[in-house]
Amino acid sequence: MENLLKSTSLVQRAYWLIRLRWIAIAILAVATFVAQRFMGVSLPVTALYTISAVLLVYNFILYDLLRYWTWAGKEPSSARIGGILTFQICADLFILATILHFSGGIENPFSFFFVFHMIIASILRSKWQSYLQATLAVFLFGGLVGLEALGWIPHYHLAGFIGRDVYNSWTYVLGFLFVFTTTLYLVVYMTTSISEQLRKQQGSCEQANALLQEKDQLKNEYVLRLTHDIKGHLAAVQSCLDIVFREMVGPLNDKQKDLIERAHRRTSKCMAFITALLRLTRMRLTGRLEVERFSLRNCIFNALASVQNRAQRKQIDLTHRIDSSVDQILGEAVLIEETLTNILFNAVKYTPDGGKVDMQVDEDAGFIRVSVTDTGIGVPQGDLARIFEEFYRADNARAAERDGTGLGLAFAKQVVERHGGRIWARQNAQGGSSFIFTLPKEPTASAG
Amino acid sequence: MAQGRILIIDDDPDITEAMTVVLENRGYEVHGAQDSTEGMERLKQDRPDLIVLDVMMRTSQEGFDLSRELKHNPDYKNIPILMLTAVKQKTGLDFKTEAGDDSWLPVEEFLDKPVKPDVLLEKVESLLQKS
Question: A331, A320 in Cβ contact below 8 A?
Fold first, then answer.
């Protein structure tokens, strides 16, 4: 079983053939016009222009059929799409032979355009099919020049381009056919060898990819189990510490209280980290979004409100501008609000006292664009690409704030990409950084 | 001092102990059980006014299963259940506390673990007042 291209890429190739045919039709019409008008070559122009017109109609029909079969993301079976391709290639061979017949037959150097058909067949179809196409081409062209030489069908001489007695000189015809035939078979041989190798490589890439995904899934399951267990123990530790700290089981002296408080603070941090990791892993594993229509505007205000206090404490000027059209979108509200909060919180966290944080929300071409700009410590150029990776923290961020799970931005990236959006950061010339993400107003089925 | 008998069903003895301390401190009478079988026995014996129930015990569903069973039992269906879970957020499980569809989970209240003492006391108090 040969490893052929997948049917989606075959559909793309079928469209590609149609696009190539538009070009071929244009070449035919222009070449006919130029040869007759400017080169003084005598040609049965009516026949050639008629062929161009027929081809034009044929290509439109094919285009419509293909659109019908692939309507709304439908994927035709690979047998059907393979059939369409074979039909197109065969039909093109017939068409080229017909055009050549009306434009000099063996006298016309465009006969070497059969090479293109062989290359196309070798890329798209199996090896034996490509050889069959080569045989068909040889048969068609050989038949054409043979019958013309015998005088069984008319020969249209390209007067003004080539001598008159080429087409019925058997030495020339047979010599030409020999070169023509070997050229086609050699082209098929070379191209199919290369494309076979490429298909094999494509296949092993896909296998490797599937294996990686499987491993990643296993890793996520492992992390999920582990973090879940740790969370259970932590919850118990925290519950016990809480009671002692609140002196529910008797009074503590100051030193005891201080130590218990330290222990409690550390377990809380650990708990925040474990909870974040658990949520990120769970989202990776389920991969589902619970999409509903909700007010993004409200989410934005909630997010702003939840960082307001912290901003005030640091005397940070927290401003925002939201496009008046921004409101209802489709998505998972809880996740999006958390992402907004996360990014605002980061901006406030890494901006020194008295700085500025500004949020802009715009709508453009079905996408919402949120950007949060601060006058904070910024992200070093070299870290821009990596800060969305799990556990990665830029050195200056680590130095400025010891606390941080290194998971907040990974989570934000996961949420945004699940919704079919993009997220990135940039360093601003006047210092500070901007975090920008986009969200489609109506995520398509492929997102999530 | 608050009045009432509370049954805690949780397989983590440390969590049970910590909650017991918090609740007893407030004046409640508290009993503990480590799984649903022991929980059912305790239920018959002690006739609690409220049940604090953990979701994941021997199986990840044990708490859910027990709560459904209790709400279908005429003897126990009026006892309010406070469910503890480490998975409330984003499990894909759509918790609903009202009857009417498959995802119905017949409990009165959910709390995420670990529970802060004051939150626990507040919820317990309000549930006992309602019943």
Answer: no
Give A 211-230 residues with CB within 8 A of chain B. Answer: 228
How far is the C-alpha of A232 from the C-alpha of A237, rounded, in Å? 9
Nearest to B92 among A234, A242, A288 (CB): A288
| Contact (CB<8Å) A234/B25 | no
Chain B residues close to A276, C-beta within 8 Å: none
Cβ-nearest to B86 among A231, A237, A288: A231
**Closest residue of chain B to A230, computed from CA coordinates:** B86
Q: Mutate which of A239, A269, A290, A292 to test chain B, going by most B C-beta atoms within 10 A?
A: A239
The whole-angstrom separation of Cα A356 and Cα A60 is 58
Asked if residue B130 is part of any domain, the answer here is no
Which of chain A's residues have a Cβ under 8 Å away from the Cβ of B15?
A: 235-236, 239
CB atoms within 10 A of CB A220: 16
Query: Which chain B residue's Cα is nearest to A276?
Result: B89
Question: Which CATH number does A292-440 carry?
Answer: 3.30.565.10
Q: Is A201 exposed, middle or buried (0-12, 13-18, 19+ CB in 10 A)?
A: exposed
Cβ-defined contact of B117 to A234 (cutoff 8 Å): no
Q: CA–CA separation, B105 vs B96, rounded Å?
A: 6
Residues of B in contact with A240 (CB under 8 A): 14, 17-18
Q: Is A356 on the interface with B (CB under 8 A)?
A: no
**CATH number of the domain encompassing residue B109:** 3.40.50.2300
Encoded amino acid at A55, one letter: L
Overall residue count recorded for chain B in this entry: 131
A235 and B116 in contact by Cβ < 8 A? Answer: no
CB B65 within 8 A of CB B41: no
Give chain A's largest Cα–Cα span. 119
On whether residue B92 sits in a domain, the answer given is yes
Q: What's the domain count of chain B?
A: 1
Task: Number of A to B CB contacts under 8 A, please give it.
Answer: 54
The whole domain housing B117 covers: 5-124
Domain membership of residue B129 (yes or no) is no
Query: In this structure, what are the phi and psi dihedrals at residue A152, rounded to the nearest 5 degrees?
Result: -75, -30
Residue pLDDT tens, chain A, 448 long: 344 556 667 788 888 889 999 999 999 999 889 988 888 787 888 889 999 999 999 999 989 988 888 776 677 777 888 888 888 889 999 999 999 999 889 998 889 899 999 999 998 888 999 999 999 999 999 999 999 999 899 988 887 777 777 888 888 999 999 999 999 999 999 999 999 898 899 889 999 999 999 998 898 888 888 888 898 889 899 999 999 998 988 999 999 999 999 999 889 888 888 888 888 888 888 777 778 888 999 999 999 998 998 999 999 999 999 998 888 888 888 889 889 998 999 999 999 999 999 999 999 888 999 999 999 888 888 888 888 888 888 877 877 776 777 888 898 998 999 898 999 999 888 888 999 999 998 876 444 3
